[in-house]
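Memo to structure team: turn this sequence into structure tokens by end of day. - J.P.
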Amino acid sequence: MVFETIRYDVREHVATITLNRPRVRNAQNSALLLELDAAMHRAADDPEVRVVILAAAGPAFSAGHDLKAVVGEEAPDAWRRLRATPEGRLRHERELYFEKCLYIYHLPKPTIAQVQGACVAAGLMLACMCDLIVAADDARFSNPVLRMTGAGVELLVEPWELGQRKAKEFLFLGEPIDAREAWRLGLVNRVVPRRRLAEETRALARRIAALPPITTALVKESINHAFDLMGKEHSFKYHFMLHQFMHGTRTAQQALAARRRTGSIAAMLRERDRAFGAAPAELPRPARGRTRRGR
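Reply from structure team:
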């Protein structure tokens, strides 16, 4: 398979899957998510692969969902038709986001997210599906979706990653946390200089790859099972349905209309925040230029 939105490389028992839409800060469109899923399946099926690194090209790990490709002017006609009904929207988000994220979470091989720059909303959700996170010292984690009137993203990872009270603060305010604070809170395993991010992540992956694959697979399954007994996957499913309900509310419909009227999420937020006298929510800087969509 020839990939257009990601890169795939295997060396020394380590598969590196690199999100490759740097001009749009690796915003996740359907092509990227489908190719990422195919690459994860390839790594899972390859007996030579013992560890998977999820990396990203350019200055940012991921700015989240590509909203232009979901609800904006670049959304394909097939998506528009599917998302025109609540049941179609449910099917689309369950298959493309929810189930594909959980496949990474349950991948029978250790996974490491290699994060630099902005890691926003669905970008954070994706990174948190990995077993370990190595962050560059310029990494910034945020989920400002509540400021956009959404109920977070499809899988609400923050309570499990940050704890109850910090998760509420993080989501209610939409303010970013830097790499050092993310390490202090237990969101990331290591913080390294940006120039050494790939090198340090690969060194960690090689150490894990030296372990017997059956050992890492069984221990990973056991740890995931311990969290399942605490209700982690049930909480994901519950939030996913609340997320679907939010789409159909008057609040969400008004926000969508405002986005279409103002032309962008950032413009919509500026207009609304002026009316409420609130500080603007921090969003990733707009991408410059365009990339081939790979559809």
